[in-house]
Amino acid sequence: MADTVPDWLSSAHARRLSPAPTRPVPGSVADALARGPVGERTYEAHPTARHDGTVVWWLVDDTDHRLAREALRTERERTAFLTEASNLLLSSLNVERCMDVTAQMAAEHLADAALVIAPSRGRELPLVTCLRGERPSTSRVSAAPEEVPGLGEALQGFPPVPSRWIDPGAAPDWLIPEGFGPVRSIVITPLPGHGVPAGALVLLRRAESPAFTEDEEVFARLFAARAGAAMSAARLYAEQAAITETLMRELLPPSLHQVSGVEYAGGYRPSLDHERIGGDFYDVHPAAVRGDPSLVVLGDVCGKGLEAAVMTGKIRNTLQALLPMAEDHQRMLALLNTSLLNTHNARFATMVLASAAREGNAVKLRLTSAGHPAPLILRADGRVDEAPTQGTLVGALPHVTAATVLMTLAPGETCVLYTDGITEARGGPLGDAMFGEARLRRVLSECGGMPAEAVVERVQMLASQWVGTGHHDDMAVVVISAPRTNHLSAVNGHTRGRFTA
Q1: Helix %, strand %, coil % of the chain (to 5)
Q2: Disulfide check for 34: which of 12, 117, 154, 263 has CB 3.0–4.6 Å away?
């Protein structure tokens, strides 16, 4: 038998005829069959014992079943690999991280080394290189993609060229990792993105490794499609995040400080803690000429979130353009009202305008409310007065009407502008009571003599405590203060002295 049949069949026959201690248990799988190759095909050998003690082996061609099992195992392994790759790639929206993961997974599972090349930035190609078993490294090379057949086309999103068309010996030095050695085979495939190519994937195999088969090239394209989609999504997210950050800076409330002897402070809290902008806004526009009144605007656009914030941006830009007529509140509101009506936008706004200028030790105010809660004046003795101004909201009616009043702040006195998000905030012990104007007045009466920033912080803190974790509208507050002054004594008794903030 040993000289006539393959070793696997001879061994199976010897086991069949061996004494009981080493013979397979009758009826077991080992007793039933043996399997092995004959030339390029594989067979199952089934034994049948005869009465004279001999054994007949029936051979059944198992090649097709074996190939099917191997194909199934390969497909399962590839599916598991693609699933793992998708999970890793989609778990990050960072472009550099996606490129690193793509290069590392390709080097570990598809080739001996992999390069991920991003679209060129000027004259340089950003690329990530990874050798099997090593960490990816990032670099930039000054090279023309046309030096490598198929690379320029891949970076433009065109279908890949077959690997047999690429001569490994003609590959430029920058494409071969240091210490890699001779190259046996190269595959270059595009990384397709969302409408725009995300880059190209280059796979390398050493001289001692087998060349890429057509089936492996197809699988590499399947992997590249997932990697390209992830990189494209990450790049799109990065671009949108940069745009959003730029626009956000224009929509965020400004930081306030002292201008021309008048102290300003402001605070804003959007309706949702994860948002930074909303429908409430405020601005302080210093006068073009020192000593002239500065214009303070605080407003509340109908709605909240991003759509309301876009509307606040339009209003703030319009008011910026109307600053040359800041002395006339009525005209500014009328022109703003016309502008909003012409935008065909259903949103409207309430706001209050305040012109503030230092006159001696006091601060002179002109206050105009357009459908907005009237400003509150905190006197030096702790008394809280309401400025008698009222009017119609802006952007809803053909004509807007508003009353302008004149007020004076003595040193240490404060004018508070606020939105109804503070007074209408619901919370408290039972969670459903409004903060209310009366409570706001009591809070302000305890802030007599405080700096503007301290008043803002006090109002915001108590309103936030009142709301707790409950829902609330946007909340904004602006404080205008006349700083306390110190009298400087006369010099040599010849002058009246002066006051300083």
Answers
A1: 35, 25, 35
A2: 12
